[in-house]
Q: What sequence folds into this?
């Protein structure tokens, strides 16, 4: 159940492209034709499926504060987390290279369809972003990390497939000249992202009452004494800030 | 400019407008959109990226003759990763709150396409001083768009700039709010960043017809 929830969440609610804007560069550059978009999307799913669990292992047994305890008690207070960027990117770059070699050897047909996209993937922010989000959201088990990797990959795949299909059709419409190409793609992506925001309520049943409580509380106090009013308005500002922060966190 | 020859100053000024990394070269979009809900975060991000591009360009340019071309991507990634770790540690040390707000996006500077793009397109073929200028120029061009987007999103989204209330107080109903103005909370949500950049591209291309794409 937990796995299914994370799977759906990473595809729809935390969609790589529409919620966190990761992998936008290749998303915009390679979405002119559906067939190439499918190739790149498939390669992203594949690489994410491998790198996110691998980086989870690295994170848990090497990088986290105290992760080295399996080497012996004297290593318990080592904290290597400052190395995580370089470890993650090295893992990704080597995995991409390895995947390229393996695929070329065992499945030339797949290699021909993915071929040119694989090297591109090493510098796709969605891949590194997947690993970094896995780390910052503290995903607890290897299984969940794998599910998160696949889910994020599929989310990215869906996004690039959809925009490629739209861009193929938009060629036949009369877009204002300065907006053609890049401009209209940005605006369409924005509209699609607004659409994807409606998935936000899909799995979160418990969030809203908490926020209401926060805003209701100061109101009651206003009725009691006028002297606290100023303080309350300050408090309200605080809660507003908190709300704004929440929104950002959700982003 | 006495210090810079005409050719050198072109390296800095070109990416600001007609060869802007975001609106023309389509590089480095990811971070440009995600962290622009506040002007302050946008400015810090712009400075960090400029520093990383400029220094990285110098390092790569110094090493350009000894990097074997087969493994150059990994070498480049390592150089960027080291610089980004330095930036991240500095941010954590001097402004912890902000580094929490930027969260993973500091790390994502590593895969910011502007950096790899400039390494590939410029630093591998030019000397260190020119590469440094090119890095500064592209970082500034990127920062310019970030700051424009951040300005509009923070102004219309929460009525503040750099955290200072410029449109009056929404709770005590002063300033513009006395006239019934309301903050447009939608501007704080992520999709609006895309639409604002789309509009910037629209404005830029209607002013300069040479940039218009034919589909």
A:
């Amino acid at each position: 159940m937990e796995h299914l929830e994370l799977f759906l969440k990473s595809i729809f609610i935390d969609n790589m492209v529409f919620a966190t804007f990761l992998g936008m560069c290749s998303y915009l550059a390679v979405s002119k034709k559906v067939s190439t978009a499918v190739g790149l999307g498939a390669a992203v799913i594949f690489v994410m499926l491998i790198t996110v669990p691998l980086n989870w292992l690295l994170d848990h047994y090497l990088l986290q504060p105290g992760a080295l305890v399996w080497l012996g008690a004297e290593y318990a207070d080592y904290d290597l987390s400052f190395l995580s960027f370089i470890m993650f990117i090295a893992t990704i770059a080597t995995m991409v290279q390895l995947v390229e070699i393996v695929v070329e050897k065992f499945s030339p047909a797949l290699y021909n369809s993915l071929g040119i996209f694989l090297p591109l993937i090493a510098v796709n922010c969605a891949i590194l972003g997947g690993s970094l989000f896995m780390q910052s959201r503290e995903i607890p088990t290897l299984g969940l990390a794998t599910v998160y990797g696949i889910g994020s990959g599929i989310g990215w795949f869906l996004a690039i497939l959809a925009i490629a299909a739209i861009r193929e059709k938009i060629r036949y419409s009369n877009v204002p000249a300065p907006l053609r190409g890049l401009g209209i793609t940005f605006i369409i992506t924005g509209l699609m992202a607004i659409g994807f925001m409606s998935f936000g309520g899909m799995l979160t049943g418990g969030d809203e009452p908490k926020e209401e409580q926060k805003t209701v509380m100061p109101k009651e106090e206003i009725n009691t004494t006028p002297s606290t009013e100023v303080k309350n308005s300050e408090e309200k500002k605080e809660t507003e800030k908190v709300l704004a922060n929440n929104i950002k966190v959700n982003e | 400019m006495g210090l810079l020859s005409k050719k050198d100053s072109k390296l800095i000024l070109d990416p600001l407008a007609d060869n802007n990394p975001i609106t023309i070269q389509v590089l480095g979009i990811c971070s440009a959109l995600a962290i622009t809900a506040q002007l302050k975060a946008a400015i810090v991000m712009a400075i960090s990226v400029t520093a990383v591009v400029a220094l990285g360009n110098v390092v790569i340019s110094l090493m350009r003759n000894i990097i074997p071309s087969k493994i150059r991507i990994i070498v480049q990634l390592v150089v960027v990763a080291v610089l980004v770790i330095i930036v991240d540690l500095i941010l954590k040390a001097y402004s912890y709150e902000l580094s929490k707000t930027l969260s993973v996006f500091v790390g994502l500077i590593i895969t910011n396409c502007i950096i790899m793009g400039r390494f590939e397109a410029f630093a591998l073929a030019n000397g260190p001083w020119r590469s440094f200028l090119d890095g500064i120029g592209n970082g500034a061009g990127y920062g310019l768009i970030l700051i424009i987007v951040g300005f509009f999103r923070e102004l219309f989204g929460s009525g503040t700039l750099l955290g200072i209330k410029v449109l009056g107080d929404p709770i005590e109903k002063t300033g513009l709010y006395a006239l019934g103005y309301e903050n447009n909370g939608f501007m704080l949500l992520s999709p609006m960043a895309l639409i604002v950049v789309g509009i910037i591209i629209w404005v830029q291309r209607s002013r300069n017809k040479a940039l218009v794409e034919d589909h």
Notes: Confidence is low (pLDDT under 50) at residues 206-232 of chain A. Residues 34-63 of chain A form the longest helix (30 residues). Chain A touches chain B through 58 residues (CB under 8 Å). Chain A has eleven helices and no strands.
